[in-house]
Structure formats: C-alpha cells, structure tokens
Amino acid sequence: MIRLFSTFASGLTPVIAEFLQKDISLRLVNQWDGFIEYCAESSQLDKIKHLQYLQNTFVIIDSVRGDINLMLNSLSQQNNKLKNFSFDRQLMPNKKRTFRVVVSEENKLIGINNNTMLQIEKNISNITRLTVDRKNPGCQFWVLHRSEGHTFFAIRITELKSDDKGRARGELRPQLAYVLSRMSEPTENELFIDPFCGSGSIPLARAKMTKKGLIIASDNDGQLISMLKEKVKKLDLKKKFVVRQSDALELHNYYHACIHKVVSDPPWGCFEEISDIFDFYDALFNELLEVLLPNGIMILLIGTEVFPEVLEKYKESCSLLGKYDILVSGKKASIYKIKKL
Ligand SMILES: C[S@@+](CC[C@H](N)C(=O)[O-])C[C@H]1O[C@@H](n2cnc3c(N)ncnc32)[C@H](O)[C@@H]1O
User: Fold this and answer.
1) With CB atoms 3.0 to 4.6 Å apart as the test, which of 103, 143, 210, 303 could cross-link to 268 if both were Cys?
2) Which ligand 1 atom is at minimum distance from the Cα of 274?
C-alpha cells in the first residue's frame, strides 16, 4: 500500500471522494477542501494518474502534524522516511533524471532559505541519484503545508495540466465538464441534453462515458453550432450525437417527459442580453421539468443568485439532491443536482 493525496477544484470534495471510491480500491484517510488523502495499492498508480477529475496527485513520503519548518528541518538533516522510502521505477522520471523541490504553504508557493534548500536537495539527490534542475526538472518533490495543520513531503506523479490553451471564451475546463457530466450518473441508452452547449465541452465529455444512447447538444448561437458539428464529425460521434441550433426556452418542442438527463451551463447574464434573469430561469426551469422524465436528473452550473428563488417556486415538482459552491474563472457559481419528482 502507498499513501497518496490528490488535489482538485475547491468545493467538490464529496463529489470527487465518491468518484474516487468508485474508480479505485482505496482507504480514505483525510478529506479537506480540494484535497483527498488515501491509501491504495501501487498497482493502481497508472490508473490514478489518468483520472480526469484530479488536478494533481502525489505519493507521500513523509507527513507531520505541525508547521512547515518541522518538515524542512527534518529534510535538511536526516529524514528516515526519505532514507527508507522505496523509489519504485513508476515514481521516477525515466528520461530527464532531474528534480526540483517546491514548497507550498496554504496553496501558495513560497521561497525558503537557500542553505536549507541546498541541503534538502543534496539529501534527495544522494538517495534518489537524481540531479537538481530548478528550471525544467523531470520530477518534483513537494513540501506542502495545509491550513488544517498537516505538512506533507511528497513526489508529484502527474504532469501539470495546461487545459487553458485553446479554450474559447466561456468554454468550461475539460475537468469541470467531466465532473458535471458524471454527476448526472450516466447509464447506457439514455437521452441526454445540454441546451446551452456553447463549444460542446459538456456533451463531448458525456459522449465518452457510455456507448449507447443519444446526446443532444443545442445552442442558439449558429456559429458555435457549426463549429461543434465539425468537431463531432471529426471525432466520429455522429451516430450518437445530435447538434442543433435552437432556443433553450423552446424545449417543449421535444416530447413531454422523454429526457433522462440534462447537464448544462446556462448563461449567467454577464455577457448575454437577458432583460430579467429571474424570468429567464423561471421559463427555463419550466421547460426542463416539462421534458424531463420522472426521476430524471438535471445538473446545472449556475452563477446567478436568483436561482434558489426559482427552485423554491418549483419545490413541489423537484427535489434538490445537492448544491456545491465552486469558482469558475474566479467567479462564484454553484452546481445544482436536482431530481424531477
Ligand atoms: C455559459 S455558456 C455555455 C458554455 C459551454 N458550457 C461551453 O463549455 O462552451 C452559455 C451558452 O448559452 C447560449 N445561450 C444563451 N441564451 C440561449 C438560449 N435562449 N437558448 C439556447 N442557447 C442560449 C449562449 O450562446 C452560450 O453558448
């Protein structure tokens, strides 16, 4: 068994803990905001590394309950955990045999005394036979202190995800699109819709989750729809993916109660012309309840504060299964998981 921790978007700890427990056989140790510590067999490392909803994953070499200096002092002298740690081939970089040490306190990278750093680097180098490269290393050792009072010394086993590149304005990060789609509990043969699909991040993430069923992606922006049609063609998803230009406030054109799941990121009223945001969400929710099957699930990412009022209005027709407050591009938003009664 090895001890690990993974980081992910703030606000989603219960959701990510549930996914992790489904995907990996593990024992949870600590769960804090945006952070889960757990034990798992090393044979599962490769699978863990590729879990889309995790930002970064680290294998823990040592941890203490106490401040960061306790760990830094111990690492600059003789740290027995480091000395006795088995640096399995899976953990070591195979091309660039270099490393650097990163120090993080309460989610901020900090600098430390250079002599202490040199001593820590020397100790790590003696044990791992890696050499120091502070600019472009093959792997990273982290000393990370959390506000809950724990300090970890760990090796990072994931690459930094640079998913900001090439994203259109308003397009969700792939990680968040994955989480939203999966929160709807996808099963085979469902009819799924994202009526505000934009660039298609949510339905494209959903398409990878099941083989059968139909995904409908619609938006009222013709240009976005043409671009998404191209993507769907290139990805060879045409058999299970319908892309169409339509108004989300006219979902009643679909049959009554025919849709199993809705996952969507409606406009937040920041860029779009919406004269009355309450009326817009009221009309939208009415449409969604009309087309959703009883027990059907909607996952909505919403950045407006009027939504709880809308939910209150429809409380006889639906039940709120969960609400998760997150930040999207620095703006406050909430994910609502709602079941139609
Ligand atoms: C927040 S963005 C969705 C972004 C999308 N999740 C993505 O990753 O690209 C909201 C989308 O709603 C669309 N929209 C606004 N009003 C609409 C309406 N009445 N019917 C359908 N789409 C609408 C906009 O064109 C925009 O693409």
Assistant:
1) 303
2) 16
